[in-house]
Amino acid sequence: MRGIQAFFSPTRKEQAVSANPSRLLLERWLDYKKRSFDLILTEDILDEYKEVLNRLRIRAAHTGNLIASLRRGGVLVQPWYSVEISPDPADNIFFAAAVAGKAQAIITSNPKHFPPVEGIRILTPEDAQKELSGP
After folding, report:
1. Three-class SS of residue 101?
2. What is residue 19's three-state secondary structure?
3. 115: confidence class by pLDDT, cuts 50, 70, 90
4. The predicted structure's pLDDT at residue 117
């Protein structure tokens, strides 16, 4: 599967649970042997991830290591146009990257901000986990 993981700011409860679905997907992707999907990225998305991790007060060293891993293993694309689809303008970078990278899905915990576009499915992290794990 080719997809994009749209990070979100987890609630306190989700921060306390180390096995939340978004984290499990990221850990699966970071483990090269278990990796079963491509992560499509842009420089804007990497900047957004850095901002979210800083807001969550993740240590700078961990943030730097994660961003370096994403850059090394992800599919870096250059969107050729911008889109204005989401009610949250910050989410539009994920749509543009999905189109440029020919993504099959956008994975997000906030699907109401991600209407389906150009045949790209919108999956929650739970749904993506189920699909990637198979029957």
Report:
1. coil
2. coil
3. confident
4. 78
Q: What is the distance between the alpha carbons of residues 119 and 90, in angstroms, rounded to a whole number?
A: 21
Alpha-carbon gap, residue 111 to 43, rounded angstroms = 23
Residue with tokens 């539009």: 92
Q: Which domains does the chain have, with CATH numbers?
A: 2-133 (3.40.50)
Upper half-sphere CA count for residue 135 (Cβ side, 13 Å)? 0
CB neighbours of residue 56 within 10 Å: 12
* Identity of the amino acid at 50: K
Whole-angstrom distance, CA of residue 108 vs CA of residue 52: 14
Comparing 19 with 106, which gets the higher pLDDT?
106
In contact, 64 and 30? CB cutoff 8 Å: no
Contacting residues for 106 by C-beta, under 8 A, at least 6 apart: 3, 4, 6, 94, 95, 98, 114, 120, 121, 122, 123
Query: Furthest-apart CA pair in the chain: how many Å?
Result: 39
